[in-house]
Amino acid sequence: MSAVWRKSSRSNGSQDADCVEIALDGSAARIRDSKGLADATVAAPAWAAFLDTVKGDLFRR
Predict the structure, then answer these.
(1) Cβ within 8 Å of residue 54, ≥6 positions away
(2) What is the pLDDT of residues 5-61, one digit of tens each?
(3) Which among 22, 19, 23, 16 has a CA at the least distance from the CA of 2?
(4) What is the reported pTM?
(5) Checking phi first, is residue 51 left (phi over 0); if not, alpha (psi -120 to 50) or beta?
């Protein structure tokens, strides 16, 4: 089965916008720059920790 890539909601809604894309499966998150085909794989617990950090108050002023 091929990966289903999703664009960031911050990509201004344009199909041509450059952004980060992610494809999730049960054990990992695959992340890539929309301009390229290479991707990196991050284990699901690490991806969840990343999301908790960026959604939390750690970086808010």
Answers:
(1) none
(2) 888 776 666 666 678 888 988 889 999 887 777 889 999 899 889 888 888 866 665
(3) 23
(4) 0.65
(5) alpha
Question: Measured in whole angstroms, how far is the alpha carbon of residue 34 from the centre of its chain?
Answer: 10
Q: How far apart are CA 55 and CA 26, in angstroms?
A: 21
pLDDT at 1: 57
Counting beta carbons within 10 angstroms of the beta carbon of residue 54, is it exposed (0 to 12), middle (13 to 18) or buried (19 or more)? exposed
Here the tokens at position 7 are 């664009």
Whole-angstrom distance, CA of residue 21 vs CA of residue 51? 14
